[in-house]
Amino acid sequence: MRLQVDAPPCTWRPAACNAFGSKRGLFDAVLAAYLDDVVRTRLRPLGGGDPGALEAYIDDMRSAIEADTPRARLGCLLLNAGSSPLASDDAEVRTLVSDYAAEMRAAIRSAVADRRPDLTPDAVDALAAVCASLVVAGLTLARADRDAALATLASVPTTLESWGRG
Question: Which of 4, 17, 72, 131 is 20 to 30 A from 160 via CA?
Answer without folding.
Answer: 72
